[in-house]
Amino acid sequence: MKYPDEMARLEELLRELPPEMYREVEDFLELLLARKSRPPQARPTLAWRGALCY
Question: Which residues of the chain fall short of a pLDDT of 50?
Answer without folding.
Answer: 1
